[in-house]
Specification:
364 residues; alpha/beta; FAD/NAD(P)-binding domain; seven-stranded mixed β-sheet; 11 helices; 19 strands; 32% helix; binds flavin-adenine dinucleotide
Length: 364
């Protein structure tokens, strides 16, 4: 059977790896609008559910030896004073670019169709998809389609026009800093600093012995977001974080803000079904969540692992039609929980510290 994966980010690569060895994995095309040899992004936390999923879909890679182990969390005030040090399960901080490059090696001999975007498709009267159209005029035929095209998924808007993204309340500026001394000082601890008034926080993690991944989260109703160019981001960050703890200032000092990314965070109202006919939504396309949950990449990997189990023996259209409703049902409760927790964590983030202690910034 011919499989078409729409989007070659984490969900798309994880799924291609997961389908290897099955009939659906015999002929896989991955459509990716970016040039894949130039992966973008800063980094994220791999949590236990993501690591277990990776070990299932690509068991030959030593996933637990990637990135930097994160064993502790320190919740701190903006001046560095400790507020709390809740226990967290061990996790890994990984560079998105390095991680994606490694995951791509696990996709085997899938055909990459790079630099092309999906623009259109039409399901027939039996909800069956036969081909998709791309912006270069080409069309790709297939028997099974997987929408892995991210939070603003074009595939989802075509097949699930009622799906709704939440509005942007919090924005996040994600950066990396080459800062060996700071990386060493942070060690295996995720530090999160909070403004007393709420609605502004900074997270710092070391991703390697010399690199720090860090982010500024802000309430975009209280803080006018910078335009997306380096000087404007640098000005915003420097002004907002003046007088913050020495670790935060060291990260600011070592950052090239031309490489920073401003992210308008939006979650997706939970969908009852994440499949239609022979099309399944995977990763952020199925359940975009707020960054407070740290579940974006982990949830995408979990989806791929679930599809690997469900689709291992699929050989006909009828098998596929019968299997995908189980995929929709499988993590429905978990998707709802992550959405609700993301909203709860955002509410906590927006409130002054005097009214609410800072929350643990991840959902396990
Ligand atoms: C460039 C980039 C950088 C990121 N950096 C970070 C980060 O530093 N930290 C973090 O926590 N999260 C980051 N994320 C988000 C994170 O990767 C996702 O939330 C999570 O991993 C879920 O992955 P996904 O594959 O479902 O979605 P995504 O990672 O968003 O991947 C979707 C893929 O589909 C492609 N695509 C989208 N539309 C089309 C189309 N019409 N046709 C063809 N291809 C299409 C995109 O180019 C992308 O490669 C980033 C996402 C992207 C796209």
């Amino acid at each position: 059977m011919r499989t078409v994966i729409l989007g070659g980010g984490i969900a798309g690569c994880a799924l291609a790896a997961a389908l290897r060895g099955s009939q659906l994995g015999a002929e896989v095309s991955i459509l990716e609008r970016r040039t894949v040899s130039k992966p973008a992004g800063m980094g994220f936390l791999l949590l236990e559910n993501g690591i277990r999923g990776l070990e299932q879909i690509a068991p030959t890679v030593a996933w637990r030896r990637q990135g930097q182990p994160i064993e502790r969390l320190r919740l701190r005030a903006s001046n560095g004073a400790d507020l709390d040090a809740p226990r967290i399960a061990p996790a890994l901080c990984v560079s998105r670019a390095k991680f994606l490059a490694l995951l791509r090696t696990a996709t085997g001999d899938a055909t990459w169709l790079e630099g092309r975007s999906l623009i259109d498709f039409a399901l027939d009267e039996t909800d069956w998809l036969t081909h998709v159209r791309c912006d270069d005029g080409s069309s790709i035929q297939g028997d099974a389609f997987f929408a892995c095209d991210g939070a603003a998924s074009r595939s989802r808007s075509l097949a699930f026009p009622h799906a709704q993204l939440g509005s942007v309340v919090v924005q996040e500026i994600v950066s990396t800093a080459y800062a060996p001394a700071l990386a060493q000082r942070l060690g295996t601890t995720f530090h999160k600093f909070h403004a007393a008034a709420g609605g502004l926080a900074v997270g710092l993690l070391s991703e390697s012995p010399d690199t720090v991944v860090w982010f500024v989260q802000f309430d975009s109703r209280r803080h006018q977001a910078p335009t997306k160019d380096g000087p404007s981001i640098a000005r915003f960050v420097t002004e907002r974080l003046r007088g913050w703890s020495s670790e935060v200032l060291a990260a600011v000092e070592a950052t090239d803000f031309d490489l920073s990314h401003v992210w308008e965070t939006r979650d997706l109202m939970p969908l009852t079904d994440i499949h239609r006919g022979n099309l399944a939504l995977v990763g952020d396309a199925a359940h975009a969540c707020l960054p407070f949950t740290s579940q974006g990449a982990n949830g995408a990997i979990e989806d791929a692992a679930a599809l690997q189990r469900l689709l291992a023996n699929i050989g006909t259209k009828a098998d596929l039609r019968a299997a995908l409703p189980t995929y929709s049902a499988l993590h429905r409760h978990q998707r709802r929980r992550v959405f609700d927790e993301g909203r709860r964590l955002r509410d906590a983030f927006l409130q002054p510290l005097a009214e609410r202690a800072p929350a643990i910034p991840l959902v396990e």
